[in-house]
Each structure stands twice: as structure tokens, then as C-alpha cells.
């Protein structure tokens, strides 16, 4: 397994993240994590809201410093308490202390904001996260499931006020869900953020017929078309459908790293083996042709205007952009 830098930091993270939400048995969790680590994987992702997931990790992770432990806060841990959720300072502090105890560690490597909270000023969140970093309880921070403008504003504030900026963005991304290509992926690329793509197999739809999580009779025609295309490309390349689906994600942007929930050693082996798969251009076109997707406004409109003399004069088609 190869490694990438996490955002604009020096932290080395593996090219496949292990999502641990589905691990609920200590013995199996230990086998899965050991297999992942033996393959070179080093990022374990959980959240305060994933039941006893943090406690499970705290019990089974034996080589703490070998891993990049990532957890999240925001979601409620006491439905009767209005301050037991959200991105404000009080919930951040209580959630962080709870996570440290459950994970049996003195610091969190990557602390994610789990969900945008429209009631908490982003200034409060960024300052509170920076305080946690300065206290040594958190090393790096990221944000999950938030609008692009929130991500951009948060990191601009951090840069302006010398606070710790977000280094990562965690969002859903798959052949069936390409919404981040409209705003979130361009923002991440522009700001140098690592994108942790959750649900990269569309909850098992793109993993092939063996996935026990999928009710195939309930699939939409769009989902069936995507699954067929992935299966056909996999057959042509001598690969597994899940490997093709993950290879498509990795081909879209060097900023993206798949975050896969792997609940068995066999799944770890399959996904790690697939990291060596590179899709030919015609395979990518075939996959994308099976599922309609448009950027919509303003992406499509800007793409039409960019080379047009009416918008940028007679030299519009002769300007070479950065990195080209």
C-alpha cells in the first residue's frame, strides 16, 4: 500500500481508509484491523455516534502509535440534552473527552466535525478545534458533510486568524452519487484538502451480487444500470466489481481516498488487491455513460463560457492554464 499526505500537512495516510462503523465483534474486529495493518493500512475511522465503536477500537487496537485514529463529534449522545449535540464548544469538549476515554488514548489523530450545525457560528467551532490542537488532545482536524461555502469560509478564517485549518473533507462519493463534483470536490482541490469518500460502493450496490446488504429486488433502474456496467467492466478486466468501483473513484481526483467499511478479512484482501487496478479511459467512459450525471449550474455554464470569445475575447482558446 502506498501513502499520501493528509491535506496540507506532513501526516502520511494510507491510500485506503478503514471505516469501522460495521465492526461489532471484538475477535473479528481484531482480525480485520490486523489484516488491514499487515497490508500497510494505517487509518481507522470511527465516530462518537457509532454505538460502542470507539470502545471497541480502544479494546482491540494494540499498536496505538501505528495507526492514525480518526473520530467525529457533533451528533447527539443524549437526546434529552440540547447541548449534547452540535458543533459548539461545550459539545466539542465533552465529546472529545468521552472519545479519549473510550478509545483509551491521550490524543485523537484526526478529529472530524461530523455534520454542519447551522446554529453554531463557524468561528466558534474553528477556535474550539484550534484550542484542542494547542492542548495536544487533537493533532489534525477535518469536516464531514457540510456545504462547500462552509468549508471555504472556515479555512479562510483559520488562515486569517492563525488557527488550525481543516486538512480533510469527508463526504459520500461513488459512481451513483457524484454530487461532490459540483462544488465540494473543487473546493477540496483548491484548498488542498484530502477527500475521504464514504459509501464508495453505494452501500454495496456496486460491490457485486455477493453483497448481503443489498435488496436487489428494490434497486432502481439507475442503480441496476450502474451495477451492470461495473460488473461488465470487471469481467473485461479480470477484476472484482468492488475493485472497479473503487478504481473509478481514485481515477477522478488525486485528492480522493476511499473510506471503506470492511467487516471481514476477505473484504480487506479484495479491496487492497484492487489498489493496483488502473482503469483504461474507455472503461471510465463506459461506467460514466451508464449513469447520467450533469454538473448543472454554474459548472456547465462556466464550461461553455470559458473557451468562448464572447466571454473572454479572441485569445480565449489560446490561454494555457496552470499545470497544463
TrEMBL record:
One of its GO terms (molecular function) is oxidoreductase activity. InterPro entries: AKR_Detox_Biosynth, NAD(P)_OxRdtase_dom_sf, NADP_OxRdtase_dom. GO terms for cellular component: cytosol. Residues 16-290 form the NADP-dependent oxidoreductase domain. CDD domains: AKR_AKR9A_9B (cd19080). Keywords: Oxidoreductase. This is Aldo/keto reductase. The lineage of its organism: Bacteria, Bacillati, Actinomycetota, Actinomycetes, Kitasatosporales.
Amino acid at each position: 500500500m502506498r501513502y499520501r499526505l493528509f491535506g496540507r500537512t506532513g501526516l502520511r495516510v494510507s491510500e485506503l481508509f478503514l471505516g469501522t462503523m460495521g465492526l461489532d465483534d471484538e475477535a473479528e474486529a481484531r482480525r480485520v484491523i490486523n489484516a488491514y495493518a499487515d497490508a500497510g493500512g494505517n487509518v481507522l475511522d470511527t465516530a462518537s455516534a457509532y454505538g460502542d465503536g470507539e470502545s471497541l477500537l480502544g479494546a482491540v487496537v494494540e499498536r496505538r502509535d501505528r495507526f492514525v485514529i480518526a473520530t467525529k463529534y457533533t451528533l447527539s449522545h443524549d437526546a434529552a440534552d440540547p447541548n449534547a449535540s452540535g458543533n459548539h464548544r461545550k459539545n466539542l469538549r465533552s465529546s472529545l473527552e468521552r472519545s479519549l476515554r473510550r478509545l483509551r488514548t491521550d490524543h485523537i489523530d484526526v478529529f472530524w466535525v461530523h455534520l454542519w450545525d447551522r446554529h453554531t457560528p463557524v468561528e466558534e467551532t474553528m477556535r474550539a478545534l484550534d484550542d484542542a490542537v494547542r492542548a495536544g488532545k487533537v493533532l489534525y482536524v477535518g469536516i464531514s458533510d457540510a456545504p462547500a461555502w462552509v468549508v471555504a469560509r472556515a479555512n479562510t478564517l483559520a488562515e486569517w486568524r492563525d488557527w488550525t485549518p481543516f486538512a480533510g473533507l469527508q463526504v459520500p462519493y461513488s459512481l451513483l452519487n457524484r454530487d461532490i463534483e459540483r462544488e465540494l470536490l473543487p473546493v477540496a482541490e483548491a484548498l488542498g484538502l484530502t477527500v475521504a469518500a464514504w459509501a464508495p460502493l453505494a452501500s454495496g450496490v456496486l460491490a457485486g451480487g455477493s453483497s448481503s446488504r443489498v435488496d436487489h429486488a428494490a434497486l432502481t433502474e439507475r442503480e441496476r444500470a450502474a451495477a451492470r456496467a461495473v460488473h461488465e467492466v470487471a469481467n473485461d478486466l479480470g477484476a472484482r466489481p468492488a475493485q472497479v468501483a473503487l478504481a473509478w473513484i481514485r481515477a477522478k481526483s488525486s485528492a480522493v481516498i476511499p473510506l471503506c467499511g470492511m467487516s471481514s478479512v476477505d473484504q480487506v484482501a479484495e479491496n487492497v488487491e484492487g489498489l493496483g487496478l488502473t482503469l483504461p479511459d474507455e472503461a471510465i467512459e463506459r461506467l460514466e455513460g451508464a449513469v447520467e450525471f450533469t454538473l448543472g449550474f454554474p459548472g456547465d455554464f462556466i464550461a461553455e463560457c470559458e473557451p468562448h470569445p464572447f466571454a473572454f475575447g479572441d485569445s480565449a482558446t489560446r490561454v494555457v492554464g496552470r499545470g497544463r
